[in-house]
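Example for tutorial group B:
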C-alpha cells in the first residue's frame, strides 16, 4: 500500500485534516467586566456546525481510502481532487460561519484563526503533491508501454 511517494502525501493529508479536530481552530478575545482582556481557543467540535464536522470527517477518510486505490491511479487521482474540493468547501464554510460560532455574554472584541484553522491548507498542499506523484507514475507506465 505504501509503495509510492503519493501514498505518503495522501497519508500526510489525512493526518493534517485530522489535526483540525485536536487543535484550536478559532481564538476569541473579549474584555471581562473588570477590564482585563480574556482569550479562549475554540475547537472544531465546540463550533456546533455539523456540516463543518462532516466535511472534516470526509477530508480525513478520502485520502486514507485513496491510499488503497494504488492499482487504479485514475480513481486515486479523482478521489484526491474531490478531497481538495472538500477542503476548499471547509475553508469557505468556516470563514462564513466563524462569527456565528461565538456566542458569549460579554461582547466579543475580535476573533482570529488559530493554528488548527490552517490545517486544511496544509492538507491541500499535500494532496496537490500526491496528484503530481500520481501523474508521474502514469507517465512512467506509459513510457514503459512504449518500450514493449
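The residue assignment follows.
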Amino acid at each position: 500500500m505504501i509503495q509510492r511517494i503519493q501514498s505518503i502525501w495522501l497519508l500526510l493529508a489525512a493526518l493534517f485534516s485530522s489535526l483540525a479536530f485536536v487543535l484550536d481552530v478559532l481564538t476569541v478575545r473579549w474584555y471581562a467586566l473588570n477590564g482585563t482582556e480574556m482569550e479562549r481557543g475554540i475547537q472544531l467540535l465546540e463550533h456546533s456546525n455539523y456540516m463543518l464536522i462532516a466535511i472534516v470527517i470526509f477530508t480525513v477518510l478520502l485520502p486514507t481510502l485513496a491510499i488503497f486505490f494504488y492499482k487504479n491511479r485514475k480513481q486515486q487521482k479523482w478521489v484526491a481532487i474531490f478531497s481538495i474540493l472538500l477542503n476548499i468547501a471547509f475553508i469557505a464554510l468556516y470563514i462564513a460561519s466563524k462569527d456565528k460560532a461565538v456566542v458569549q455574554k460579554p461582547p466579543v472584541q475580535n476573533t482570529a484563526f488559530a493554528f488548527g484553522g490552517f490545517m486544511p491548507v496544509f492538507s491541500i498542499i499535500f494532496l496537490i503533491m500526491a496528484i503530481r506523484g500520481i501523474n508521474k507514475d502514469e507517465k512512467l507506465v506509459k513510457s514503459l508501454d512504449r518500450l514493449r
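Residues 5-22+48-101+117-138 form one domain. Compare this with the pattern of hydrophobic and polar residues in the output above.
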